[in-house]
Amino acid sequence: MKNSLRALIAALTLSALPLVPAQAEPPVANGTAYVALGDSGAATTGAANLDLEAPLRCVRSTTNAPRLVAERLGLALDDRTCSSAKIPDLYASQTPGVGPQLDALGPATEIVTVHIGANDADMTEYILNCHAAAASGGCAAAADPEWDRKIDGIAPAYATALADIARRAPDARIFVDGWPTYLGDTSCPAMLGLLPADAAYIQSKFARLNTVVAREAAAHGAVYIDTIAASPALGMCADPSVRWFDPLVADQTLLPYHPTLAGQRGVAELISAAVESSGALHR
Q1: Of 58, 229, 258, 263, which sits 20 to 30 A from 243 (CA to CA)?
Q2: pLDDT tens-digit profile of 183-236?
Q3: Is 282 assigned a catalytic role?
Q4: What is the side-by-side strand order in the sheet with 173-177?
């Protein structure tokens, strides 16, 4: 278990490595029609289809959900999503070569997608603790209430960010997509010893995170997109041909707990449908 945990840590922190930075993405005076904001859940398919023209630190994919949405809807895209991003990185440079994500917004912006908050809630840290605890009874058996407090605690910053997005892009419609199904009520060999109870426990925390961002989206006039309902059988223990996230044995992306191409396609379909049904493109 120690070796597998070590591999998990290396994979989950791959996007935090100080890769050679690209030239900083500049502010846009009027904003692009479609601006994508967020972290690795929106940015990457890991080692698959890496966009070498984007800041390499962001591990951004050429086949991530924002790209697929822009192609389907025929929108000019400024993709500012970046792996390891937290809410403060919307306002300030995340690292050399990666500018504040909100710099992409402007009066010409029509559509904004937002997928951020998991890193603010320290999801990776607590998930690693669950894997480490497998040999001693698991994390669900000794639930840490601090995890819930961390998740709930992102709400004020998240609310402020949504308000600032609306202020900087006053004519834009904002779409917030939640976290899809990672795990069900059981585990599988690809999770390398994760206990079934812990699998369900981890998924419950993503559900709580969804509740927080859905509530803030509703309070600030944004459209929340539920991705759980479309993915109950597509988590990390699903068949590799259909799963939306790579498990510990991350044979598609090299990034456990990160979207596969199927996952990015699935989320892109949900976002595209929400944008189309909202009438945001016909105002």
Answers
A1: 58
A2: 999 999 999 999 999 999 999 999 999 999 999 999 999 999 999 999 999 999
A3: no
A4: 77-79, 34-38, 111-115, 173-177, 223-225
